[in-house]
Amino acid sequence: MISAMSRLLMFAGMICPLCLVMGCASKGVTQLGGGFLSYESASDARNRLKQAGLGDRWQEQHKKMPQSGSRPPYQFTTLSGPYVLSEIEGHLELVFFDDRLMSTEFATARGQGVITAMRGQHTKVPTQPREEVTLDRRTKFRYDTDPDGTFRFNWRDPKLEDEWLRWVRDNS
């Protein structure tokens, strides 16, 4: 017969690894570009932009899909406008999925300056365009270059992006 202590040790031996795996799963917010956080609401972002004196220079767009039949609704909100990142002027776009910040994109002709500044802050930067790295907790980061020389820096929360892609897969 197995003693109570042996059963307790066997139980702990099975449960502890499971708890460790579950505890290591990244939950909550992650840092995106421009100092914004994933899951931040559009209202919170608007307030931050107003406090920085940028609110009146930004544009807002909405794309809604109302509920139809068994298809659940969704909404995308995009805020975009002039922004200074690492002392480099450019254009920042914030994309919200169901009022949760999912991604940010900073576009500028002075992309090498952004890369240099990020490396100076010891931030992991891809070695070339289209390469993706993971920052912060789970932020996916990459940059691309357009034919006109514009650099586009993209930070996204894959957890929210996966939620959107599941919606598309399940409802298309």
What can you see in these coordinates?
The protein is globular, with a radius of gyration of 21 Å. Residues 4-24 have low confidence and may be disordered. It has one domain (31-171). It has four helices and seven strands; from the N terminus they run ααββββαβββα. Strand 6 and strand 7 form a beta hairpin. It is of the alpha+beta class and 172 residues long. It starts with a helix and ends with a helix. It has helices spanning 4-24, 42-51, 111-120, 158-171; strands at residues 59-65, 74-85, 88-97, 100-108, 132-135, 139-145, 151-156.
Low-confidence stretches: 4-24
- Sequence of strands across the biggest β-sheet: 1-2-3-4-7-6-5
- The ordered string of helix (H) and strand (E) elements is HHEEEEHEEEH
Question: What is the strand tally?
Answer: 7
Describe this structure in a few short sentences.
This protein is α+β, with helices and mostly antiparallel strands. It contains four helices and seven strands, in the order H-H-E-E-E-E-H-E-E-E-H.
Write the layout of secondary structure elements.
Elements: H1 4-24, H2 42-51, E1 59-65, E2 74-85, E3 88-97, E4 100-108, H3 111-120, E5 132-135, E6 139-145, E7 151-156, H4 158-171
Antiparallel strand pairs: 1-2, 2-3, 3-4, 4-7, 5-6, 6-7
What key phrases describe this protein's structure?
172 residues; alpha+beta; 32% helix
